[in-house]
Amino acid sequence: MAADQLILIPLEYKGQYYDALHVKNGNACKKQSERELQESIEMLKIVRDPGIDWGDKKRTMDQVIERRASAGRQLEALEKQGAQLASAVLAKQRQLVRIGRETMELSLCRAEVDEMIDLTRKSINQMNSAMQQVHFGGAM
């Protein structure tokens, strides 16, 4: 696949389709995660190595703690975003249900109106027929 080729993912959020830029960003995030995982493995090796100075181990552990805190903050942000998306989806579902109910009501009203129009036409035709009989004395 060419780097400048546009890919439309069948996902829509707030009226926007995700495109190749989002796919590239997703791949970049995956590569960054893999790099961070490798760095974490290296940090673990530093902490376990008995030949390394305690100060270096302490700095490494501080980095691990900071990364873990950062990951926790990112997780909280993602959970909040997920909750917001879930509430947006629920609101859209409620809107669809409301629109469906209104559509059904309008359909029923339309049927009633059509029925009333038919009855009115029949009544008008009967009245016209009766008026003609009265006016012309029953002879047409």
Radius of gyration from CA coordinates: 36 Å
Q: N-to-C SSE series? A: EEHH
Given the helix and strand composition, which structural class is it? mainly alpha
Q: Could you give a short account of the major beta sheet?
A: 2 strands, antiparallel
Q: What's the helix count?
A: 2
Form type: rod-shaped
> Could you give the count of β-strands?
2
Strand percentage lies at under 5%
Strands of the biggest beta sheet: in what spatial order? 1-2
Calculate the terminal CA-CA distance, rounded to whole Å.
84 Å
**What percent of residues adopt helix (DSSP H or I)?**
over 70%
The overall pLDDT average reads 79
Which spans of ≥5 residues are poorly predicted at pLDDT below 50? 1-10, 18-23
Structure description:
By secondary structure, this protein is mainly α. It is 80% helix and 3% strand. It contains two helices and two strands, in the order ββαα. The chain has helices spanning 20-48, 54-136; strands at 12-13, 16-17. The protein has a two-stranded antiparallel ribbon. The longest helix is centred in the last third of the chain and has 83 residues, at 54-136. It is rod-shaped. The chain starts with 11 loop residues before the first strand and ends with a helix. The model is unreliable at 1-10 and 18-23 (pLDDT under 50).
